[in-house]
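General statements about sequence and structure are easier to judge against a single worked case. When preparing material for the folding task, we compiled for one chain both its residues and its backbone structure tokens. The amino acid sequence and the backbone structure tokens for this protein are reproduced below:
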Amino acid sequence: MIIDYLGYIAVGAVLVVLLMGLVNMFRGGSSNTSQKLMRWRVGLQFVAIIILMLGLYLSQR
């Protein structure tokens, strides 16, 4: 089902942004960049949870 692939893509996007934030932190990067990445991560996590819950709901029907 396509919702499964969207779930994998959403979780992968969260992972990528999280890793980018960790790399920025360990390299001593800009705090503005860290804040921006944190906002993106939170937003992507919200989208990922919505997609995963929708997938669970549709799989029960």
Observations:
- The CA atoms of residues 21 and 37 lie 6 Å apart.
